[in-house]
């Protein structure tokens, strides 16, 4: 009986930990993101940040940190390079890291500095502009740092979590909160210029037009065009599906993916619909718009290469889900699926697979 | 299967309660806990009845005699004990099986709270999928209007472990309250009359659980989202109320031994 009692009291908590850990595999889970610079791609894919050679998909280095029970380390926010060569990555352990991308962390420490003062995860990527790093955190605050990682003034507190990267037109910094609010801060003083509530939670970022217009899609399926000077809406268009990502703007046309599998092309001037392509499942990432093609992934793992004029498509079926945005790297398209067979895949512009990346260890 | 039967329905139920209380998620957790407790009350009442019968039997003269008679022969002792259980219509597991049955509910509830709070984009996709299932449609969950959930409660974010800085150290007030209420509940449910038999296994188990459970739940509450700690506290308080209303709470167990009134131990009259 004593043995049974001992087994009971030991097994019970282990079972509890196991079952609670089974919730979505890992609490800190999202989809990978990619940055391309020079000859390398940097892939934020959860427990590791990878540097991958663009020519052949070789593993250059991997960066990771230890997790604790309260702060699990994971990087999903898009890494951003500063003009002085720092790679800025925000992680789910609430720390913002500046890395030297030329240094292999297995050989020596590649952390320039770290900023640990945020109270929640770094989900959206930073904006580098005006010799500053504008860093949005899920603790509702926009932190402004210099290139040495020092906080510049008080962080700006929004009404809800900040999940997306800010944008700037040089005069103002624009960003969105999960609580349906769009903010504009003065780029130099960081004082609020305006804020505007729109319809629906905002999961994606802002597409900034050249003519003083911001384009935003919301969780309620609304696409809104706002005036950058005062935040007032120019036009709004409602769709049945949810919008999870930043609209893509190209040559006066706005491209938006929705959760019910549509990719809409809209006239950026007035929101009128130009075309509507039906994919095989949810399109949660921002479409990549090239001169002749639109490239995007779907929840079922299909990578579409759509002719921009005719909407004829060829497609590749991958293992995993394609929630993120495809990235252009020279003559290649890079994609990083969720729970796929590979961390990163490269295709040519016609949709033919070039190489795949799986880490060495 | 776990997802379909437990997590998704619990998540949708939690979201539904959340809409009833104007989006105040902390109230939703409290109401949800009350609902779960009410639903599992028959099991709990059965557990209490079984525990009481077991304790009474184990403190009877006949039981003590069997223990003494077959002290050196474990097999014979076990046989005689099983005979007594059968005659009394009591199961030796009757006191812990209902608790074990409630465990999946606790685990499922934790997962549903975490899913509802959706602290990351991928978690939000799971939440949206949950809302689109049969139970979500049955409860008319309109996830588009619900996001983001209001996860704030007093100084806490219900999706994060709770911390207050005291003298430079991060301390979880909620976790401490969880440990205290768990300890109180354990003490109240222990027999009023301690067993005279020093080798009484169930008494030993009860003692161990009254120390072990508070520590285990303290660990969980310290390291996991504060929404879970809130659930534990409400559940413990409701448990104490349930025991009190059924007349099974042994309040004098909360007093230090020196202050407890003297009682005769063991022996059925």
Task: Characterise the protein shown here.
The complex is a heterodimer of chains A (361) and B (269). Chain A is mainly beta and 361 residues long. Chain A has a domain at 204-333: Beta Barrel (Lipocalin). Helix content of chain A is 6%, strand content 40%. Chain A contains 1 helix and 32 strands. In chain A, a hairpin with a 4-residue loop joins strand 31 and strand 32. With 269 residues, chain B is mainly alpha-helical. Chain B has one domain (2-255). In chain B, the strands form 2 sheets. Chain B has a two-stranded antiparallel ribbon with strand order 1-2. In chain B, strands 3-4 form a two-stranded antiparallel sheet. In chain B, helix 10 (173-188) packs parallel to helix 12. Residues 265-269 of chain B have low confidence and may be disordered. The chains are: A mainly beta (361), B mainly alpha (269). The A-B interface holds A 1-2, 5, 9, 12-13, 15-16, 19-20, 22-24, 27-31, 69-70, 76, 92, 119-121, 123, 138, 160-161, 163, 178-179, 200-201, 203, 219-221, 242, 244, 259, 284, 323, 338 and B 2, 7, 103, 107, 110-111, 114-115, 119-126, 128, 144-145, 147-148, 157, 160-161, 201, 204-205, 208-209, 212, 216, 219-220, 223-224.
